[in-house]
Amino acid sequence: MSSLIFFKLLAIFFIVALGWVAGQRRWLGPGSKAGDVGPDPARVMSNAAFFIFIPALLFRTTARIDVSALPWATLAAFFVPVMAVLIGVYAWQKLRNRNRNLHRDGHRDGSSPDHSNPHRTADPAVPSVRAITATFGNTVQIGIPLAAALFGEAGLSIHIAVVSLHALSLLTVCTALVELDLARSRALQNDANAPLGATLLATARNTVIHPVVLPVLAGLMWNATGWRLPVVVDEVLLTLSQAVVPLCLVLIGLSLAYNGVRGSVKGALALSVLKLLVLPTVVLLVSHWGLGLNGLPLAVVVVAAALPVGSNALIFSQRYNSLQTEVTAAAVFSTVAFMFTAPLWLLVLSWLA
């Protein structure tokens, strides 16, 4: 691994450590543990990222993207297997939660499991949170300098194309999935016979009027007009979007300080394995042997798939108040392990070449 990438990883760890120190010293206020009083700084920062900075980034990206210039065949070789893994993890977690809840209901009072309510779950956001954590990579802080160092300008242009659709596609799909699960859960809690149409209508409304999806749709509509963003508007959006990376990294450190990793190590390690080993393996198999991708495009998409867990996964988990500790630990573990798995994937790609 080149010194450029090593120092980039080191800088990420320093920023996360700064957030951890701020959390330990309570510089930003108390956390959400028992005995703490006042707003949770991690929650406040997460809301700021989700409602202000990330929407600015998504709108600016979609408003400026040149759709005709994108390498669609290469993008399909990346996003088709990534979406397959995302849906696979989501479906696996849905089945796991369903079986766990049926088992819990059947043994709570010695009665038989409640098969009349198979969708009931204590936390309907868990499948979507784990799905996005297992597939959402750190394509900007680590991915861009890595692509530039390994593949030069030609490879970097392909990676930038992946980045342009990365958050838009994964966050949008996971938002739709989690909102559907939340709508179904609310319907089952309020009315066991709630009609499917009402559930779908609530899901559609909550999915569209959402800080991730709405700026994407607005950006696409602006893009379709062919107009350039006014200079002042573009500068405002650029300034806001630049805050996403440092804010998310500090948030990881804060979450570690407030919550630790106790009880989440096993889940975080499993998610790290999925992200660093399983996902790039599936991308390699589908893109190379399934879609016939070779050479530089193949190397770029496999390395992009092999990147550690991106900080936006934590923002997503914070948004839905689900598995924050596990996702935080997965982001840290996978970033550390990436120093060892990245050379492994480069060796595999060298062998294929």
Folded structure, characterized:
This protein is globular. Helix content is about 75%, strand content about 0%. Helix 2 (about 40-65) packs across helix 8 and helix 5 packs antiparallel against helix 6 (about 195-210). The protein is mostly helical and about 350 residues long. The protein has 13 helices and no strands. The longest helix is centred in the middle third of the chain and has 48 residues, at about 145-190. It has helices at about 5-25, 40-65, 70-105, 125-135, 145-190, 195-210, 215-225, 230-240, 245-260, 265-290, 295-305, 310-320, 325-350. The two termini are about 20 Å apart. It has one domain (about 5-105, about 115-350): Na+/H+ antiporter like fold (Up-down Bundle), CATH 1.20.1530.
Task: Give the CATH architecture.
Answer: Up-down Bundle
- Cα-atom radius of gyration: 21 Å
Assembly state: single chain
Q: Label the structural class.
A: mainly alpha
Question: How many strand units?
Answer: 0
Low-confidence spans: 111-121
Shape, per Cα inertia axes: globular
What count of structural domains? 1
User: In percent, how helical is the residue content?
Assistant: over 70%
CATH topology: Na+/H+ antiporter like fold
pLDDT averaged over residues? 84
Total of helices: 13
Order of helices and strands: HHHHHHHHHHHHH
Give the C-level CATH assignment. Answer: Mainly Alpha
Q: How many strands, what sense, and barrel or not for the largest sheet?
A: none
What's the end-to-end separation, in Å? 19 Å
**Strand residue content:** under 5%
